[in-house]
Amino acid sequence: MEKRDIILFDGVCHLCQSSVQFIIKRDPQNHFAFASLQSEIAKNLIEQKEITEESNSVVLIKTNGKSYKNSSAALRIAKELKGVWKLAAILLIIPVFIRDPIYRFIARHRYTWFGKSEKCMMPTPSQRRRFLD
């Protein structure tokens, strides 16, 4: 099995589901694999990687073993996408104590603003191989 960075996302959040679709379209090299945070696979990975601070929106687990949450995860994901999205990585120079409160504000209101599903998203048959769960 090929080693890929893993994105753990909130599988019932419409914003998160749309973000996964956005990433898939801009990741033709299949750099990323996905799992919903509600899945057993994600729970096991979080425990295995000893990710202590609760993250309920996005976690990036790199093939080198490092993990990132919140704005750090989102910006490192953007850095790997094709096109101008790579430029978002420049925002990593902004200290995390400034970036994360903005990220958490959006994350806290994401269900109200973008909606929530009763069930986790179902990938299309062509996307299925990109999902761990």
Core attributes:
4 helices; 38% helix; alpha+beta; single chain; 133 residues; globular; 4 strands; four-stranded mixed β-sheet
Commentary on this structure:
This protein has 133 residues and is of the alpha+beta class. The protein has one domain. 38% of the residues lie in helices and 13% in strands. It contains four helices and four strands. It has a four-stranded mixed β-sheet, with helices on one face. The longest helix has 19 residues. The chain starts with a strand and ends in a 19-residue tail after the last helix.
Please write out the topology:
Layout: E1 5-9, H1 14-25, E2 32-36, H2 40-48, E3 58-61, E4 67-69, H3 70-79, H4 96-114
Parallel strand pairs: 1-2
Antiparallel strand pairs: 1-3, 3-4
In a few lines, what is going on in this structure?
With 133 residues, the protein is of the alpha+beta class. It contains four helices and four strands. The chain has one domain.
Radius of gyration: 14 Å
Bulk shape: globular
C-alpha termini separation: 15 Å
Question: What would you call the structural class?
Answer: alpha+beta
| SSE ordering | EHEHEEHH
Number of self-contained structural domains: 1
Give me the count of strands. Answer: 4
> Low-confidence runs (pLDDT<50, min 5 residues)?
none
